[in-house]
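Title: Request for sanity check on Zinc-binding dehydrogenase prediction

Description:
We are preparing a figure and want to confirm that the structure record we downloaded matches what your pipeline produces today. Could someone re-run it with the sequence below and paste the raw structure tokens into this thread? We only need the token string, no images.
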Amino acid sequence: MKAIVLDQFGDSEQLVLRDVDEPQSRTGWVTVELKASALNWHDVLVRQGRYGSPLPHTPGADGAGIRCDTGESVVILPSLHWGEREAAPGADFEILGDRTPGAYAEYVSVPVECLAPKPAGYSWAQAAALSLVGVTCFRALFSRARLREGESLLIVGAGGGVATMAASLAHAAGAHVSVTASTESKLLRAKDSGVDSGVLHTDDNWPQAARRLSPGGAGFDVVLDPVGLWGKSIGALRDGGRLPVLGANVAEQATLAVRPFFFGQFSVLGTTMGSPRDFAGLLDLVATGRVAPPPIAAEFPLADAARAHAELENGRHYGKLVLRQ
């Protein structure tokens, strides 16, 4: 079969199409003939060697395709070996494409519990783009932050897959959604997709500007930070608010003033990926028809994975980037 192979860590040009062996059959695992694979920032970190993947290696967490044993159309949950506790993943947890060969290929093998029916009405690209950002956002917003109907949510960084999915899920649950963005064009795209309001985060005073958009100007019930700007993001919360954090592509260190933090009764909630139970909750919400499919910024042939990664890293797109097999 054809697959993208990484022989050494580095820039996007390390991603090379090659002939490799098809996955071997093993008990409890299923081979999927992939139709599409979506890109995530996590894949960039794998390519750079942040997760110590074995080399040579095929990355890729997200995929959708046909089960080779039953012929069913399926979408893949990238959380492998979550474990028995819903509170956090177990010691054997990994994301597909970390150590297990991933979805930048014509075929991939995954545990049977990581497969679910492809959502009705979704294209292959939309289905492939759903899983990682969908389960991550579902867990962050609902399992961790307990976002409820009528509450207010601010999403830091409109334009990426996490932000667009989070906005769609929050709207489906009846929350009021605002965003921050790096450019006017991304802000306009977010508003066109149904976001209630937004501000640019290029100004150092953006938390104060964002607060003015919240109900009564008191701050947001929940601020979702997928980029690592805790010190700023917490300034947009109302007293007693919750800050789920799940990324660090802008900053990997955060400094918080201790006294305002405890007087504000804030909660900072670490979260990543999601369990099979979270995935089931996501797909139940999608089945209501209230969740818009992930917007697709561009599709690339599998052989153009290096070009797709370069596009992912420049950050100018709005929505998800997808490889088509």
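Thanks, this matches our download. The chain has a mean pLDDT of 93.
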